[in-house]
Amino acid sequence: MFDYAIAHPAGSPAFHAELQEAADALTAGEPDPVANMANLAALIWQLVPDLNWAGFYRRQGDTLVLGPFCGRPACIRIPLGRGVCGAAAGTGESQLVDDVHAFPGHIACDAASRSELVVPVLHDGVVIAVIDLDSPTPARFTDGDRQGFEALAALIAARIAEG
Ligand code: SME
Q1: In what order do the strands lie in the sheet with 95-97?
Q2: Ligand 1 in reach of 128 Cβ (< 6 A)
């Protein structure tokens, strides 16, 4: 059984350090990328407050394909450059969107989503996936969250890489 909890205030540097510690412990020594993405999505869903979607899209050529997640069923394929996820994967840069309705080309998978943070996962300098977080609260995510999830992405990149 895995029983993780975070003591520090949500979004603080200490919160993110604890989240990374838990993610590290949960995936250490497990070579299966799907198992690791599934557990990471569940961990984020459990520990990060005020989300309505948390999970992975994996890059396959010039398309993002839905990976393990928690939340409502979501769009399966997103071309690079399309929507918030496609922008993150296409540029290799995190997208912190305070108001998804103001983001050109935002893809509404869940009408409840108001803000979004998408962080690319790079392995050997290549985007292999993105971590996508949606919230029903406008401007839910901070720059500290962006930094925290970028560190998390770097930590788990090799553990979700195929082959
Ligand atoms: N809103 C995303 C699509 C994925 S769902 O949020 C799960 C986007 O615009 O890329």
Answers
A1: 77-79, 63-71, 53-60, 126-135, 115-123, 95-97
A2: no
Residues contacting residue 86 through CB under 8 Å, at least 6 positions apart: 64, 78, 79, 80, 105
Q: Is 84 in the pocket of ligand 1 (CB under 6 A)?
A: yes
pLDDT, one tens digit per residue, over 110-141 is 899 999 999 999 999 999 999 999 999 999 99
* Domains in the chain: ranges and CATH: 13-160 (3.30.450.40)
Question: How many CB atoms neighbour CB 146 within 10 A?
Answer: 16
Per-residue confidence band for 1, with pLDDT thresholds at 50, 70 and 90: low
Ligand 1 within 6 A of CB of 57 = no
State the closest ligand 1 atom to the C-alpha of 74, by its place in the atom list counted from 1: 7
In angstroms, what is the span from residue 23 Cα to ligand 1's centroid?
23
Whole-prediction pTM: 0.97
Q: pLDDT for 45-86, tens place per residue?
A: 999 999 999 999 999 999 999 999 999 999 999 999 999 999
Tokens encoding 154 = 């770097």
